[in-house]
Write a structure and sequence with these properties.
Elements (H helix, E strand, L loop, with lengths): L1 H13 L1 H5 L18 E18 L2 E15 L23 H26 L8 H9 L6 E2 L8 E7 L10 H9 L3 E5 L3 E2 L5 E2 L9 H13 L4 E11 L1 H9 L10 E4 L8 H7 L1 H9 L8 E6 L1 E2 L20 E2 L4 H4 L6 E6 L30 H24 L14
Parallel strand pairs: 1-3, 4-5, 4-8, 8-9, 9-10, 10-13
Antiparallel strand pairs: 1-2, 2-5, 6-7, 11-12
Helix pairs in contact: 3-4, 6-7, 8-9
């Protein structure tokens, strides 16, 4: 099977101009997601937190936030679509060149970890095919956005996206593009900064920076952005970013109408285990429960525990997996009786990084291959699309004032 899939990959990359070129259509990364009524415009900027200092090599000034913005745009015939690598370029980066170079390298490192290494570990590189060709095929894939095309007049609700630990602001670009096409301004920023020697500052590993004030800073900037309805500001976070958004809700200021937490990773653990690994967050949720009042939807995967004999032989029928599936208990969150939490479990055993589009960037090149977890990548792509659609439905229900109907999504979520 490994040899057959390697041959398939080589064939796809040999004709990659046909695979990755989708001018005038949705990006291959979108799968079957349906775009909304708007074109998607994109711009980038570097915002500076003037009351906080940051030093890295030749940079010694206000802490910078590399910020990406997707927005509803007017049709722009003749304007070329962007490709994935265009998200890695920033105007104004010459002001902090070494810092940007380190940040830019992390783009490539993250892409390598979640795309190239994943292919190599599961499928194997076909003879004569280099990792550079694979990397270039992914980064040259068209995205569903056009650079700095004219925005639609008016004010739109806004979503702030917070990436995971050592992640990048483009890691959920498909969901950001998708929401923008349906009438939202979406802002995503860097929330971690490089150490002088190696690694990254995040509150997971140190307390150098106050993540809550960073979120507050970006929420203020997002609310003040051109074309944003500051009365309708939402937040979506993944992994560490989801944890930080939940912790942020303990603060007095409440800029968000609602929060969506994509797989915090606490969901399957009992309270004692969660306290061992996420002590500060669990303690905060207990001690500050009365202050945490923003409606928060927590999404988690069904847990899959396959025996070794079934790895790589996943049944196509989800019902066949039932003996190996278990639902998370969400125990660390259930002790907080004041926060309006809601819990939604994805029926298919979606991988942690498949809650965001970063984990599916190999799918256009490898339709139907089996992942290292023993699950079907095409089914994970489908489940990711349902997660993106669910995010749209949850946020839209608040904007329109219509109650969210979970029954409409019960085929994909529990």
């Amino acid at each position: 099977m490994k040899k057959a899939r390697s041959a398939q990959l080589l064939l796809l990359l040999t004709v990659s101009t046909n695979v990755i070129d989708c001018s005038g259509q949705s990006s291959p990364f979108w799968g079957d997601l349906e775009p909304g009524p708007y074109e998607v415009g994109y711009r980038d900027t570097i915002l500076y937190k003037q009351d906080e200092h940051f030093k890295f090599k030749n940079y010694d000034a206000a802490k910078p936030f590399f910020t990406m913005i997707w927005y509803p745009a007017k049709p722009a015939p003749g304007t070329p679509d962007m490709t994935l690598i265009d998200y890695w370029r920033f105007n104004g980066s010459e002001q902090c060149s070494e810092l940007y170079s380190r940040w830019h390298k992390n783009f490539a490192d993250v892409q390598d970890t979640f795309s190239l290494a994943r292919i190599q570990n599961v499928v194997g590189f076909p003879s004569g095919l280099s990792s550079k060709v694979l990397f270039d095929s992914i980064t040259a894939t068209t995205v569903h956005a056009k650079y700095r095309i004219p925005a639609v007049e008016g004010r739109f609700p806004c979503v702030l996206f917070h990436h995971g630990a050592q992640g990048m602001p483009d890691e959920n670009s498909v969901t950001c593009e998708f929401l923008a096409s349906h009438g939202f301004v979406v802002v995503s920023s860097s929330f971690s900064w490089p150490l002088e020697d190696h690694g990254w500052h995040t509150s997971v590993t140190d307390t150098t920076f106050d993540a809550a004030t960073d979120i507050g800073f970006m929420a203020e900037k997002a609310g003040a952005a051109v074309g944003v309805d500051a009365e309708h500001l939402f937040a979506i976070g993944h992994s560490w970013g989801a944890q930080e958004l939940i912790a942020f809700d303990a603060r007095k200021e409440k800029p968000f109408k609602s929060i969506i937490a994509l797989h915090t990773t606490l969901e399957p653990f009992d309270l004692e285990t969660a306290r061992k690994y996420w002590g500060s967050l669990v303690t905060l949720m207990q001690d500050s429960a009365g202050a945490m009042t923003t409606p928060t939807c927590i999404l988690a995967p069904t847990d899959l525990d396959l025996p070794d004999t079934l790895i790589g032989k996943v049944p196509s029928d989800l019902n066949s997996l039932q003996p190996y599936l278990s639902l998370p208990a969400y125990a660390p969150f259930r002790g907080n009786k004041t926060t309006p939490y809601s819990f939604i479990t994805v029926r298919y055993p979606l991988g942690h990084d498949e809650f965001i589009s970063l984990g599916l960037r190999t799918e256009p090149l490898l339709p139907g291959y089996i992942t290292a977890r023993g699950t079907d990548l095409s089914k994970e792509q489908e489940s990711f699309e349902h997660v993106a659609s669910l995010c749209l439905a949850i946020i839209s229900s608040t904007v329109t004032g219509q109650p969210f109907d979970p029954k409409a999504h019960s085929g994909h979520f529990t």
